[in-house]
Amino acid sequence: MEQVVKQVEDGSCELMNRGILALVSSIGCMSAGSLQTLADAMHIPHLFIQRAPAGTPRSSCPPTTHGQPDDYTLFVRPPVYLNDVIFQVVMEYTWQKFIIFYDTDYDIRGIQDFLDKSSQQGMDVSLQKVESNINMMITGMFRTMRMEELHRYRDTLRRAVLFMSPASAKAFITEVVETNLVAFDCHWIIINEEISDLDVQELVVKSIGRLTLIRQTFPLPQNASQQCVRNNHRINNSLCNPKDPKAQTLEITNRYIYDTVLLLANTFHRKLEDRKWHSMASLSCIRKGSKPWQGGRSMLETVKKSGVSGLTNLLEFNDNGTNPNIFFEILGTNYGEDRGRGVSR
């Protein structure tokens, strides 16, 4: 991991020597922390787009010096609210006993707040990691558990929450259904910002009983004519048309990357009209004795004040450098044995 962080630092430093407008990173928390330190030292705006590994749900990055006057990092993706959302949903369903499944790529520390709140409410919550070889995991359970233990385990599976990637969730549901570990009276919740329409269809087909899906969504303009035109900027139809297959499979992270580039283009246009702006010509990034960019603070403030309407609806930053705009969608199937059932919001 240290080698990866060093490569990120070296690559960023090389870009700075060429003269850059800002750093845009789509990486994990650890590498982002290293870039944040570098950006602060060089006075370079750093727009961080958090990316979780292998489509697994995001966990909040560890606390940094975020919010300090000399902080040059802006957080493009909104804070992680999965703890709050799943707690509200579980409370609404009045669950008192359930199990949480999470895949190997998920940072279980991300739901510590949810576990604390659940404990305070007297809920009985179990945790189980789902191994990458799901078939071997299930087979091992049948081999080692006694019959009465399997019956108790089946009862526990009646209520479950999955913090998993869509691919892992599909494979896991398929396995437990085929081995009769779940019955038609089960109710499972899958929560992940990254669940596409195709994922929804496949998860509904593979599951039995009742299924609730929670994902991030981006409200469309009420005026259909503005669907692909935002603030005089025309977006490619394959990206903005919700019926287009490419738009349906576009990762959320890539949506934020698109809007970040659009935001920086608009900001650069503004700065070109500012005669007092210090260009990047004098910037140098050297390991010892680096010279920070005099125009960096002005550039950062202009980015924070700009805002743009794009694929993520509205990208803007509040005073502490975070994007406050996030919406969740809750989808649910009907309770029953009809494998062809639909999904409602």
TrEMBL record:
Residues 12-334 form the Receptor ligand binding region domain. InterPro entries: ANF_lig-bd_rcpt, Ionotropic_Glu_rcpt, Peripla_BP_I. Pfam families: ANF_receptor. Its main location: membrane. Keywords: Membrane, Receptor, Transmembrane, Transmembrane helix. The keyword Transmembrane applies. It is found in: Membrane. PROSITE patterns: PROKAR_LIPOPROTEIN (PS51257). This is Glutamate receptor ionotropic, delta-2 isoform X2. It comes from Clarias magur. The lineage of its organism: Eukaryota, Metazoa, Chordata, Craniata, Vertebrata.
